[in-house]
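User: Teach me something about this protein's shape.
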Amino acid sequence: MIKPETLAFLSAVAANNNREWFALNKEWYETAKADVIHLVEELIPVLATVDPQFPLETQAKKCVMRIYRDVRFSKNKDPYKNNFGISFSVKNPNGNGPEFYLHLQPGKSFFAGGYWMPEASLLKKIREEIDYNTSEFLEIIEAKGFTDQFKLSTEDTLKKAPKGYDPEHPHIGLLKLKSFIAVLPLTDQELLKPTLVNHLKKAFTGIYPFVRFLRGAIAP
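Assistant: First, the predicted structure itself:
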């Protein structure tokens, strides 16, 4: 579970996103970060039992993303994120690939899995795999363990059919996707319950076949 003080810290950052406030509350930040790392430490062995490719020796602190924002090319000059992002990734020959992600933010938390904005060559492979093995992919995203928890994101979608595909293809909606991400929203109340780890284990289990399919699609 996550402590209420951790969510309170994130709310406070959102309301006081400046270096002066953060410096005065650095100890609060360190306490909140330690709370998140403790949760990740509990989740790593759980994920390793679900996903054989996920290394049990993964260090929890390396999964937690920096809270400091890179503002060099952003119109938003807030120096800090108002969330904790946790990436559970598996190294592969192509660098970043399909992964699991946990986002902690008051009122906007979620767990997700999949592949965000793969490069063109890998996106082509995923589309080909879905086209060639449509029934297998549909079986995964229509399984009860998936549909009861997750919704496939359509945020990153082409306006037209990708090159080489018939606009009348029966599953053109899937082939037009530029990212393959499935999302499970999490309420603040769920984050604060002692059952959080079990809740996320069910999520890991439900989304693993989806992530495994994407890994297979981009495999050399």
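Now, about its shape. Strands lie at 84-89, 99-104, 109-115, 151-152, 180-186. DSSP finds ten helices and five strands in the chain. If you'd like, I can walk through any region in more detail.
User: That's plenty for now, thanks!
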